[in-house]
Fold this protein.
Amino acid sequence: MQINKIREDIAVTIVCITYAHEEFIREALDSFLMQKTDFEYQIFVGEDQGPDNTAQIVREYAEKYPDKIVAFLREENMGAQHNLIDMCEQAKSPYIALCEGDDYWIDEFKLQKQYDYMESNPDMRLCFARAEISAPEDWFLRSYFKENSEGKMIYPECDPLCPRTNEDDITEFRNGNFINMNIAHTSTVFYRYDYNIQIPDWYYDGIVGDHSLILMQLGDGTCAMLPDVVSVYRRSDVGVYMSESMDEHFLKSRLDWVRIMKGMISFYENNGIKAFPRKAMVERIRKEITNYVKASIKINEMERISDLISLYPKECRDIFALYASYYYINRRMIGMYSWEGTQMLTVNKYAMRFFRPFIRMCAFFNKRIRKMRYKVKDAFVYLAKLIGYWAFSAVPKKNNLWVFSGFKKNTFMDNSKYFFEYVNNNYPDIEAVWVTKSDEVYQQVQECGYCAYKMRSWKGIWATARAAIAVVDHFVMSDFSPIYGFNHRTKVVQLWHGVGFKSMGDGEKVFNTTVPGVKYSTDIISQDQDSSLRRFKKKIKYIFKAPVRELFEQYFLFLCPGDWQRDMIGRIWHVSEESFCNAGYPRNYAVYARMNENEQKNQVLYAPTYRFSYDKERELIQSCLDSLDLIQEKMTELDSEFVLRLHPHTWRNYSNMIKNKIQNYDRISLDLEKDFYVSVLNYAVIITDYSSVAIDGTAFNIPAVFFCPDYEWYLSFDAGISIDYMNMTPGPKTRTWQDTMQEVENYLRNPEYRKEENKRIASYYLDEKCNNIENSKVIADWITERLA
């Protein structure tokens, strides 16, 4: 039963779960109501069918404060986690603050302080503060926590495991700080709540969910602890985490830590969060399994160990394998130091303290040596590249041997793939070889009937060393390596991977890439104005730096499907004019082959490009998901289908979240196919922002709508744009989904809408004179003629 309506005009929602809190709930609610703020807030209270009069008290408060309190009186017990998440998902505010019904706030400005901080720090995912622990004198964990000079236990400092902080300053934390303990007590947490997060099923299995919820909401972002003591954390005998004995509490909490760490690893992986401390999490799992086993042995309840193995078989197998290795290490120590000596070194605390300075000194030097090893390794890698680059240059080159590679040596797609297939199928005299580091790509190419080698194999190295041509559509520095045969005499064919509007350089610095070595080489390549001495110095530097540079100036072929590619990339990168090849992208071959098919096209594609900012990317996707009702209505009206296709470089894997959101919309679907060009002709309209797909689409008579709500931000803080975007892109610009769908309707109802204007603008990027089904043939002929 829900009492009172949920408001949408509020900034903060206080979410309070309560069960059997008759003695405490009034104090909690009063502490919420006493908050002094310059914004509106609302209080959600979820009473979970407790055995006492808590529900009646909550009802009383809800009736007395109808604008402030929304009561959720559960008709059956949901469990703490279900109760909490149900209320969080019904909130409408950007911020959520938590506090359970047996805790309470003691700072009347608690919400205002946290709200002001979060508004001033938009990159923060959440903030929290300090809490005072209130517990009876006979509380079985009291001796564990440390009192301050006033005799109070202030959390988290009172916990011996807590990282040291300055009590007068704000302290920032990341997800790694929460691995060994939850330093943020629930009653102090204030979220910039991400409603997109899909709560996994494992979250509801344990007895405590606040720690894992913090980790989910934090993701790979940052949080902060404010210095104030804002709440009282009451340890009573009705809390969800209470146990009757220290042993029982310890065992129960060890299992929960294993569950949380294991679940969070899975959560981070499934959501594409790369910046998380996997190693620390695995170590925490091993530590807690060890603690659980030791505690079970201590109380002589061995059946608990078998239960543990059935719960976490893989994790137990790993830790038992470690036990075995420790056993053999122990045997080696006994053989070296004797049993008594080993006991003294590993068990006797006095002996351990005596030897600690020596051991730490050894560990210090070992760490230094390890770092030095890495530097030596980097030096050897560089030396191997230097030697390979020049040594392989002496290998005779075969003009009819061409090697191809994909992005970061691990993909088989885009222009390189399509050109590779065309050459194999139409130029039998040319030996086209795909080299890759990926087993999957190696198998894929071979299954297609083409020649493929592992890049690190002798065949791959020898083929690359002898090849006259190396074909890429990204950077040479990411797709080939001098260690594996690429050398000074290898001629680079740069097909690039599309017409984007991102700024790629200014003549002095290359933009929008983190690939090492992708920079201008004016410091090692002679310029007309250089003196004789400077030219000599550059020749010497060239010997040592060329193996690790992109060397745009020495591209053999630079593909130019239109004036834009020549003006905004080729000349900006100092590519020689004689290297410009006027031809279209090889990947469009299949599209041109289907151009005359009379297919009914009724799909609308939304394909935004990626953002360097995770928050902006998530905001973009959320904007689309918030507009599903509008999109569904418009697609139904137009008898069309809306297809969402995310860029493969997005920060996270949003597929599960999107599938859950769109499952009730029969006119909306998600496209997971990486190769856009196999399905491009299915679309009647393309919605994008700063992506090359708009230009490709317009070239194939598929009009585009440029949905760019973050244009100013993108221009200033993301990739930047190299053109007059508003006037030099072929299609209308929109800032809202309402306007976007109106432009889609304009196109679908009138095939001639903006057609001539769009084609005129698109021709600057993809010139009709050199873009056709013969693209790959023109490129192949251009190469063979200049090799002859």
